[in-house]
Amino acid sequence: MGLNGSIPPDxxxxxxxxxxxxxxxxxHGGLPKxxxxxxKLPRVKELQLSFNDLEGEIPLGLGECQQLEILDxxxxxxxxxxxxxxxxxxxxxxxxxxxxxxSGTIPKEIGHLSNLEFMDLGSNKLRIHPKRSREQSYTKTQxxxxxxxxxxxxxxxxxx
Length: 160
Known about the structure:
The chain is mostly beta strands. The protein has strands at residues 4-5, 19-21, 26-29, 46-48, 53-57, 70-72, 77-80, 94-96, 101-105, 118-120, 125-127, 138-140, 146-148, 154-156.
């Protein structure tokens, strides 16, 4: 596409937006902190912003995007931690955050995503919480690969 610039805060005013794919551009700056707060983007099902130069922390407000099914933020420069509020997006089927600068512990709330079919958190500086319960959707297997206990679900997490 070749778009250059930042994502304006007014993006949340697009109340009828269902799918937003701004991948493979030269977008920079961060995501608006209030992207889904106060019923903004109430219908959005897909948020695909991969292969840009977005930075800052992943907004906690994404946890209020209740219709979101696909969250694709790979190949950016997001830093900080993976917000535990992502565990509130119960319709999420795909979560791809690999190739960012995320660090800290993978939140146990990700285990609440019962519809999740694909997750990739690789190529970040994430670690697994040492006290995982059986109820969570991931378990440690060979090396540093995390796999789901659910059928038909692929989860990739490579920790360093």
